[in-house]
Amino acid sequence: MTGRKHDITAYFRSLDRRTFMDNQMEDAARDEALPIGHGQTISQPSLVLEMTLALDVQDHHKVLEIGTGSGFQTALLAAFSQQVYTIEKIPQLHERAVLRLKEKGFHNIHFLLGDGSLGWAEHAPYDRIMVTAAAAAIPQELLDQLAPGGRMIIPVGGRFSQDLLAIDKTIDGKLEKTALEAVRFVPLKGKYEY
């Protein structure tokens, strides 16, 4: 394991998932997705780590996260990047995540309540984009906002099964897609939902 992956893994293990949940405290240690209300889940911890490592985030990166949810993934991204811009569609989850992450002392996270599938064009381009909900198709807006040399991780497919894709944009703007594994995420809300 490289130094960077070791550091991310060590920080991930130090995060107490219970502090990102309002209920289900007794279940938080299990390696599975758990409900956080409003039809959403906090992802399986091992998958959160796997996706973060696959994103290959660096200290100088500007990261766009689609689906703030509980803020668990956001905290991991913010600890290893320069800036995180995170979007949540559900007001109650957005408000709780803002409070939670500010209480944890993060100052490099910018929050938006809105349709994450449209991205956040005002601050584009992004070096990395992490999508934590399943899209029926890859949102063109996110591809447009990904910087040349950038990478996006996104689950794409049907309602009950998706492929977790790594999408790399070459310096000349070409897209290279790699299927990492089969996954099952809650649907992306907004323009690109089923």
Describe this structure in words.
This protein is α/β, with parallel strands linked by helices and 194 residues long. The protein is 25% helix and 30% strand. The chain has five helices and nine strands. The protein has helices spanning 3-14, 45-55, 72-78, 91-103, 140-145; strands spanning 34-37, 40-42, 62-66, 83-88, 109-113, 126-131, 146-157, 162-169, 175-183. The strands form two sheets. Strands 5-4-3-6-7-8-9 form a seven-stranded mixed sheet. Strands 1-2 form a two-stranded antiparallel sheet. The model has no long low-confidence stretch (mean pLDDT 90).
What is the structure about, briefly put?
The protein is of the alpha/beta class and 194 residues long. The protein is built from 5 helices and 9 strands.
Low-confidence stretches: none
SSE pattern, N- to C-terminal:
HEEHEHEHEEHEEE
Total helical segments: 5
* Helix/strand structural class: alpha/beta
Described by its quaternary structure, the protein is single chain
The major β-sheet equals: 7 strands, mixed
Q: How much strand?
A: 25-35%
Kindly report the spatial arrangement of strands forming the biggest sheet. Answer: 5-4-3-6-7-8-9
Mean pLDDT level: 90
Helix content: 25-40%
Shape: globular
Q: State the end-to-end CA separation.
A: 38 Å
The counted number of beta strands is 9
